[in-house]
């Protein structure tokens, strides 16, 4: 409506319109406050289950994952007593435990081995599970760097600090110990490692911590503080202290299980684990094509206030939380099918919780539609700070699989629960929960002995409409990568098993999800396949060490320099790009555009020339130009761009065009004109610009002048031209034309080949480029096709033991033994007699003792000699030290600080690539002062970021003055 029309509108209508606009804005604000949050990924490590799929199998099969306390946690013989009041004892010998909590893969996260040993295993576990959750969501962590991604983690106990104290050796405490055991750093470290700039916080409300974290993450997303969020919780039981305290509170069940709702319920059994979900606003998840697992419709949090006691649950406060969550969700209580309860099995808490649920959900429900209630604690125990996220993940899995898993250990209903008053059902067997006309909704309830209650309303994922696949390429390329060769082989094995277990998955979706949803590391593998069966077979052959066609493997050393070579096509190349034209929309659109430009100049349309069974001989220059130009644009759309271009004959025109010397329209005009005089006229009319990409030309005149093109002689690219590029550091030559390039020791690749199908040749070259370090835009690679994101195998961690009290190489600390200092010959003989009396050693073992003593004595003498040599070396003039000497010292010192072998140190790599941070920089600067007598500032490692450059600098300083103090 223009201004004149606006004047004719009555004031009342204008007011009504303004009200409508304001109402629309209010509606948008209200929707933003209550917008559903999509769960797009999950990761977990729970007792008996290392990932969500394994967790579902455990739940579905009704597995009780409770075991005896592992020997590496605490001595159960020392601490167990069935009497809960026994001083210093635990009334149960059981619990839900993870395996290998002492193991970690610090190199993956850029953490040194020395620091890893001082980091709380809860933080280490959170790093792994957080990464797995992002991969499960097909969110490549490398793409989240500097993004507004929030981290919200529930955590409230730190047993590892007690493990460190129990060692009793304060000399083992280092600068990493405080950082590594701060609860706030659990969330902060995850944000730091991934480079996330959204809100990051650790939340402690005891047992409700992780569900409160989910609530806060949803709030942050709705407020626009972050665009993506990781929420969850973590808890490990490394020492018996908390179990002893809970025994005294009569909260632990002596029989070692959670008998939620049962008459025999007498407390809970402790468990441990970690769970993380990846969250995004629903509208964003839909727009991004994410795989939505479930929706969080709403949530609420409150506190009991002044109730009967600090740790006792409050039924009225729980009712208030639930009602507020329902209101925030816009959901009626009658719509809820299932509630995952706290269900700790305590005599006080359980009847109160069920009564609160019954008061909100249970009344006036039809008898044939009872509220179903259950608790995951009957499977894995009470995970305390991670219990809420375990419950939430269970419900999401149940929604996904259309089935409510069985609730365990329910034999006789608890008489203190008013079952008759409410319409409730406990599923002792698997219950169908299938998709129907009514949306499936569920609640997750938690409370903690801090007094904080939380409730979350979940809804099944929206049914996604799969777009019809109107076009598809015949071959696909899977790209896998890892940080070590061993991990790459294990990752390939995981995909092989996944393909065997899920044969119906679309190959295009598998490759798309893997290629776009993972970070890409140095060790790489690419596989071409036409079906998931073929992909499975090739991965199996790769693991068996067999040569496989269409499979490429390599280790990336850096970003390669790529030269595009535009050579001439021979006539037998025409016609072979037809399949590419039919199945690649970007290729087709570019070629069609060339066709439109050329219509006024050609008697026969471009597409007829290219795809005719009887092409003109010799082939028409405009057709060759157009084909090469279109291939270039296709490579460019996939992220493959040249560092330089070179061409011969018609190819030189294409090279100049793509470099920006002249436009596509002018380039096509030039190659259309065959008459010399007419060509010169056109050449003088063309607008020339400086190339945006370096161009290797064959004439001495300037390529941006008409004279160059008037003098241009059609000649093939000679070997010398290619050799010059090789000498300049170009490692890959991608040929866009016929196979006429003289071969070098460098990698030579083709775009098309007359003896191969279009896609076969293209993907072979793309696969080779990928494993040699080319950065492929995988999203653009599949942009023209209909794809769905899938949940695929996650990274295989290469864990080793890293534990406090270990030496810097990650192995158990072994005190040096000196026979001369500890034992004389008389003592040794007495020791042998004592060992004989124990009868624990065989005669053969006793016979070895003298030789063992001899070797230890020899080792001690050798150590003394080395110490004397070191003293002598330190007495030498520092001026005699060369840069090589200082470099050797730095390599050994850094290797020692990082807990790695000296031969694993590359003197030309930046310090931060080793996981070297400010704390280690201070340690190295301090050691340097002792070794060189110079006041080294840790900032030197910033200004001279490699061992090589720092060594050269220090050598100059030493040469200038032995006592000079320098700081940068």
SSE map:
Layout: H1 3-8, H2 11-34, E1 37-45, H3 52-60, E2 67-68, H4 76-79, E3 94-95, E4 103-104, H5 113-116, H6 121-136, E5 149-154, H7 160-167, H8 175-180, H9 183-194, E6 200-203, H10 209-223, E7 228-235, H11 241-248, E8 273-281, H12 282-287, E9 294-303, H13 315-329, E10 336-340, H14 349-362, E11 371-374, H15 377-380, H16 387-401, E12 403-404, E13 424-425, E14 431-432, E15 441-447, E16 452-460, E17 476-482, H17 485-501, H18 507-516, E18 523-529, H19 532-543, E19 551-555, E20 562-566, H20 578-583, H21 585-598, H22 606-611, H23 621-637, E21 644-647, H24 650-659, H25 664-672, H26 676-685, E22 695-696, H27 706-711, H28 719-727, E23 732-735, E24 747-750, H29 758-771, H30 778-781, E25 800-801, H31 819-822, H32 825-838, H33 843-847, H34 849-874, H35 883-898, H36 918-932, H37 940-943, H38 947-960
Parallel strand pairs: 5-6, 5-7, 10-11, 10-15, 11-13, 20-21, 20-23, 21-22, 23-24
Antiparallel strand pairs: 1-8, 1-9, 2-3, 4-25, 7-8, 9-16, 12-14, 15-16, 17-18, 18-19
Helix pairs in contact: 3-16, 6-9, 10-16, 13-14, 17-19, 21-23, 23-24, 23-25, 24-25, 35-36, 35-38
Describe the protein:
It contains 38 helices and 25 strands. The strands form 6 sheets. The chain has an 11-stranded mixed sheet, with helices on both faces. Strands 22-21-20-23-24 form a 5-stranded parallel sheet, covered by helices on one side. It has a 3-stranded antiparallel sheet with strand order 17-18-19, with helices on both faces. Helix 13 packs parallel to helix 14 (349-362) and helix 35 (883-898) crosses helix 36. It starts with a helix and ends in an 8-residue tail after the last helix.
């Amino acid at each position: 409506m223009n201004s004149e029309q606006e004047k004719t509108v009555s004031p009342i209508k204008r007011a009504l319109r303004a009200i409508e606009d304001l109402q629309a804005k209010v509606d948008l604000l209200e929707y933003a406050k209550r917008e559903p949050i999509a769960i797009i990924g999950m990761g977990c490590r729970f007792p008996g289950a290392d990932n969500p799929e394994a967790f579902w199998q455990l739940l579905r099969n009704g597995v009780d994952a409770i075991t005896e306390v592992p020997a590496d946690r605490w001595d159960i013989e020392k601490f167990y007593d069935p009497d809960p009041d026994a001083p210093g004892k635990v009334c149960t010998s059981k619990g839900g435990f993870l395996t290998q909590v002492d193991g970690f893969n610090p190199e993956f996260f850029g953490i040194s081995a020395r620091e890893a040993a001082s980091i709380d295993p809860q933080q280490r576990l959170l790093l792994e599970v957080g990464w797995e959750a992002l991969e499960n969501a097909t969110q490549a962590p490398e793409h989240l760097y500097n993004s507004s991604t929030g981290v919200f983690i529930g955590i409230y106990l730190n047993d590892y600090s007690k493990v460190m104290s129990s060692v009793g050796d304060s000399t083992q405490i280092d600068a990493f110990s405080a950082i590594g055991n701060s609860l706030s750093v659990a969330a902060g470290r995850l944000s730091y490692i991934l480079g996330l700039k959204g809100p990051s916080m650790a939340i402690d409300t005891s047992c409700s911590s992780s569900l409160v974290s989910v609530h806060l993450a949803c709030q942050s997303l709705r407020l626009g503080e972050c665009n993506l969020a990781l929420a969850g919780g973590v808890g490990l039981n490394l020492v018996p202290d908390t179990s002893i305290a809970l025994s005294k509170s009569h909260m632990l069940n002596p029989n070692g299980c959670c008998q939620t709702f049962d008459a025999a319920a007498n407390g809970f059994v402790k468990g441990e684990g970690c769970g993380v979900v990846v969250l995004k606003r629903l509208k964003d998840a839909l727009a991004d094509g994410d795989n939505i697992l479930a929706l969080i419709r709403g949530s609420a949090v409150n506190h009991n206030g002044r109730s009967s006691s600090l740790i006792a649950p409050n039924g009225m406060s729980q009712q208030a939380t639930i009602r507020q969550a329902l209101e925030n969700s816009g959901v009626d209580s009658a719509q809820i099918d299932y509630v995952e309860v706290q269900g700790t099995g305590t005599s006080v808490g359980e009847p109160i919780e069920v009564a609160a649920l019954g008061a909100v959900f249970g009344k006036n429900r039809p008898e044939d539609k009872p509220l179903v209630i259950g608790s995951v604690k009957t499977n894995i125990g009470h995970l305390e700070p991670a219990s809420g996220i375990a419950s939430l993940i269970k419900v999401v899995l149940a929604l996904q699989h259309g089935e409510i898993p069985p609730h365990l250990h329910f034999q006789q209903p608890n008489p203190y629960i008013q079952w008759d008053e409410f319409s409730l059902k406990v599923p002792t067997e698997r219950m169908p929960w299938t998709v129907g006309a009514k949306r499936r909704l569920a609640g997750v309830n938690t409370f903690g002995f801090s007094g904080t209650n939380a409730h979350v309303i979940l809804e099944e994922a929206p049914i996604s409409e799969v777009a019809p696949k109107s076009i598809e390429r015949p071959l696909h390329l899977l790209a896998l990568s890892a940080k070590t060769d061993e991990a790459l082989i294990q990752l390939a094995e995981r995909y092989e098993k996944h393909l065997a277990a899920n044969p119906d998955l679309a190959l295009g979706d598998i490759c798309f999800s893997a290629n776009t949803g993972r970070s890409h590391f140095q060790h790489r593998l690419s596989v071409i396949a036409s079906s998931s069966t073929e992909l499975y077979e090739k991965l199996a052959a790769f693991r068996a060490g067999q040569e496989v066609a269409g499979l490429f493997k390599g280790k990336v050393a850096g970003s390669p320099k790529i030269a595009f070579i535009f050579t001439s096509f021979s006539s037998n190349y025409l016609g072979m790009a037809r399949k590419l034209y039919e199945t690649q929309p970007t290729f087709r659109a570019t070629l069609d555009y060339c066709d439109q430009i050329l219509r006024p100049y050609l008697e026969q349309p471009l597409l007829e020339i290219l795809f005719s069974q009887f092409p003109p001989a010799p082939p028409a220059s405009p057709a060759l130009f157009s084909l090469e130009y279109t291939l270039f644009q296709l490579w460019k759309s996939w992220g493959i761009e040249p560092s330089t271009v070179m061409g011969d004959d018609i190819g030189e025109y294409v090279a100049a065009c793509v470099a920006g010397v002249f436009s596509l329209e002018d380039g096509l005009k030039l190659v259309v004109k065959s008459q010399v005089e007419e060509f010169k006229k056109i050449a003088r009319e063309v607008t020339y610009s400086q190339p945006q990409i370096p161009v290797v030309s064959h004439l001495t005149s300037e390529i941006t002048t008409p004279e160059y093109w008037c003098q241009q002689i059609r000649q093939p690219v000679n070997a010398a031209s290619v050799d010059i590029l090789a000498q300049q550091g170009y490692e890959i030559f991608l040929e866009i034309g016929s196979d006429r390039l003289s071969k070098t020791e460098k990698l030579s690749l083709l775009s098309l080949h007359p003896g191969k199908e279009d896609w076969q040749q293209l993907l072979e070259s793309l696969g080779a480029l990928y494993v040699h370090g080319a950065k492929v835009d995988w999203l653009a690679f599949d942009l023209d096709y209909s794809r769905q994101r899938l949940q695929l195998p996650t990274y295989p961690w290469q864990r080793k033991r890293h534990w406090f009290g270990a030496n810097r190489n990650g192995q158990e600390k072994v005190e040096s033994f000196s026979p001369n200092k500890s034992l004389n010959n008389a003592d040794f003989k007495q020791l042998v007699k004592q060992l004989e009396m124990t009868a624990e050693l065989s005669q053969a073992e006793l016979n070895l003792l003298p030789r063992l003593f001899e070797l230890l004595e020899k080792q001690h003498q050798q150590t003394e000699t080395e110490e004397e040599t070191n003293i002598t070396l330190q007495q030498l003039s520092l001026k005699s030290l060369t840069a090589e000497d200082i470099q050797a010292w730095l390599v050994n010192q850094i290797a020692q600080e990082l807990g790695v072998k000296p031969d694993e140190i590359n003197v030309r790599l930046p310090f931060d690539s080793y996981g070297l941070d400010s704390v280690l920089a201070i340690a190295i600067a301090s050691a340097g002062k002792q070794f060189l007598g110079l006041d080294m500032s840790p900032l030197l490692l910033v200004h001279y970021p490699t061992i090589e450059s720092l060594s050269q600098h220090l050598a100059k300083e030493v040469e200038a003055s032995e006592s000079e103090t320098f700081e940068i």
